[in-house]
Request: fold
Amino acid sequence: MKKIKKSFNIFDLQTISQSCVILRACSGIQPFQLANNINACKIAADQSIKEYQEALDLIKERAADADAKEQCEIDFKDLVKKEFEAQYPELKESEFAGLEITGDKEVPQQDGSVKKFSYRDAYFNLLGLVIV
Reply:
């Protein structure tokens, strides 16, 4: 598995993480190694999200000091724009050609309802981000 370095902002990282959770569960994703590579993308995104969360927690801690509030606001704006670099497995669009990516993943919600997420939408969310 070839890995490539990519950088993403927090919004893209959240999209990658969520879409990978959905797409790797699709029964049409064959061979199994492809599902493993999708999972590896999720893990890489989650590590960057954790790095973002740690930086955000530091900003929140410093914000308790009235003298640092203005600087914390600037730091937060910079953090939102920041791109986090990680190594992702190379996923090529051609690996998905001919696969049947249809259906929905049902995810129970905290209120007891069930929300459906489309495998196809997850694929298109990843296209251009980690699928090239």
The chain has four helices and four strands. The beta strands are 3-8, 84-89, 104-108, 114-118. The first helix runs from residue 10 to 23.
